[in-house]
C-alpha cells in the first residue's frame, strides 16, 4: 500500500512536468513549463518520503528525477570568473514593469532616485505614469516613449544620448518591442526592450511566439553589441523561449547570480522569473539582480555591464 501511494505521487508530479516539456505545441501545456523549481522541490520531498518509508525503487525513481531537474539550474549558480566579477564602472540599466494600476508613485520615484541607473526601461507605461515620471526628466534628458492606456505602453529614459530608435513589433496599435541605440565606451550599443502579451490563450500564445521570432531576427541582423531586456512573459524553462534566444551570441545575465525570480511580487511563495536580461558575448556582466518592491506585481530587474 505504501508503495502504491508513492507511485501515485510520482505519477502526479510527472504529469505537469511532462506537459511543460510539450509546451511548444499548446498554450496550456506551456503554462506548466514555468514551475520547474517547484517540481524539483516536490520530488525532493518524495525522495525524503521514500527514504522514510524504506521504499528503495520509489526513492531511486524520485532521486533520478530530482537530479535531472537540478541540471536545469546549474548555469544560474555556477561560479563566475575573475574577469566577470570586475567591479569597475559600467552601464547601469533597470527594467520596471510599473503595473498600469499601480498607485505607489512615490515608491517608484524613490527607488529610481536611490539608485544610479543610466537607462530606465518601463513597461505598462500609461499617460498617468508619464505625468508622474515627468519629475525625473531632468536627470534623464533623453527618452523614447509610447504611453498607452492598458498594459502595452513602453518607454526608455536615458542619461546617454539616444542616437537612434525604432519600433520593432507593433500589432493593432500595441507596441511589444522597440530599440534604442546609444554610445557606450565609444561604440554603438543596441538596447532592445520588449513586453509581449501573456500566453493565456491560443491567439496570445501564437502572437507572443511571433514576437519572439521577430526580435530574434532583428538581433541576428545587428552589427552591434546588444542588450535584450524586459518582461518577456515566460520563464526560460519554456520550450518556446528558444525561439527568442537561439542566437549563440546571447548570454543569460543571471548566470552566476541565481534564478532571480521577479513575478508575482504579491505572492512571494510562488515567485517565478518572467523578467529577463540577455547580452551578446562582447559585453561583460558586472552585476545582475532584482530590485525592491515598487507596488507592481513585478519586481524591477537590474543590470550592470561593460565592454570586454
Summarize the structure.
This protein is an alpha+beta fold. It starts with a helix and ends with a strand.
List the helices and strands and how they pair.
Elements: H1 2-21, H2 27-32, H3 36-53, H4 56-70, H5 74-77, E1 91-97, H6 105-113, E2 119-123, H7 127-133, E3 142-146, E4 154-158, E5 162-171, E6 174-184, E7 187-194, H8 202-221, E8 225-231, E9 250-252, E10 275-280, E11 283-290, E12 301-307
Parallel strand pairs: 1-2, 7-8
Antiparallel strand pairs: 1-12, 2-4, 3-4, 5-6, 6-7, 8-10, 9-10, 11-12
Give a description of the structure.
The chain has 308 residues and is an alpha+beta fold. It contains eight helices and twelve strands. It has helices spanning 2-21, 27-32, 36-53, 56-70, 74-77, 105-113, 127-133, 202-221, and strands at 91-97, 119-123, 142-146, 154-158, 162-171, 174-184, 187-194, 225-231, 250-252, 275-280, 283-290, 301-307. It has a six-stranded mixed beta sheet with strand order 3-4-2-1-12-11, with no helix packed on it. It has a six-stranded mixed beta sheet with strand order 5-6-7-8-10-9, with helices on one face. Strand 7, helix 8 (202-221) and strand 8 form a beta-alpha-beta unit. Helix 1 (2-21) runs antiparallel to helix 3 (36-53) and helix 3 (36-53) packs antiparallel against helix 4. The protein is globular, with a radius of gyration of 21 Å. The model has no long low-confidence stretch (mean pLDDT 92).
Amino acid at each position: 500500500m505504501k508503495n502504491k501511494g508513492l507511485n501515485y505521487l510520482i505519477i502526479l508530479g510527472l504529469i505537469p512536468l511532462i506537459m511543460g516539456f510539450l509546451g511548444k505545441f499548446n498554450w496550456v501545456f506551456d503554462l506548466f513549463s514555468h514551475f520547474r523549481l517547484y517540481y524539483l522541490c516536490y520530488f525532493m520531498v518524495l525522495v525524503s518520503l521514500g527514504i522514510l518509508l524504506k521504499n528503495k525503487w520509489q526513492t531511486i525513481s524520485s532521486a533520478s528525477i530530482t537530479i535531472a531537474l537540478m541540471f536545469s539550474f546549474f548555469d544560474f549558480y555556477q561560479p563566475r570568473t575573475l574577469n566577470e566579477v570586475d567591479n569597475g564602472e559600467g552601464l547601469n540599466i533597470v527594467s520596471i514593469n510599473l503595473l498600469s494600476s499601480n498607485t505607489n508613485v512615490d515608491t517608484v520615484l524613490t527607488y529610481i532616485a536611490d539608485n544610479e541607473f543610466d537607462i530606465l526601461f518601463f513597461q505598462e507605461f500609461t499617460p498617468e505614469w508619464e505625468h508622474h515620471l515627468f519629475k525625473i526628466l531632468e536627470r534623464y534628458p533623453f527618452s523614447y516613449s509610447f504611453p498607452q492606456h492598458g498594459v502595452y505602453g513602453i518607454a526608455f529614459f536615458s542619461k546617454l544620448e539616444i542616437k537612434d530608435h525604432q519600433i520593432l513589433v507593433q500589432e493593432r496599435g500595441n507596441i511589444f518591442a522597440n530599440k534604442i541605440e546609444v554610445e557606450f565606451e565609444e561604440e554603438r550599443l543596441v538596447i532592445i526592450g520588449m513586453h509581449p502579451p501573456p500566453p493565456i490563450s491560443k491567439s496570445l500564445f501564437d502572437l507572443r511566439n511571433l514576437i519572439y521570432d521577430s526580435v530574434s531576427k532583428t538581433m541576428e541582423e545587428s552589427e552591434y553589441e546588444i542588450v535584450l531586456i524586459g518582461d518577456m512573459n515566460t520563464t526560460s524553462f519554456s520550450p518556446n523561449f528558444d525561439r527568442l534566444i537561439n542566437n549563440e551570441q546571447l548570454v543569460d545575465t543571471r548566470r552566476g547570480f541565481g534564478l532571480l525570480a521577479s513575478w508575482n511580487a504579491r505572492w512571494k511563495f510562488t515567485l517565478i522569473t518572467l523578467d529577463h536580461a540577455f547580452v551578446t558575448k562582447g559585453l561583460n556582466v558586472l552585476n545582475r539582480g532584482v530590485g525592491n518592491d515598487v507596488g507592481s506585481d513585478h519586481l524591477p530587474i537590474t543590470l550592470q555591464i561593460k565592454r570586454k
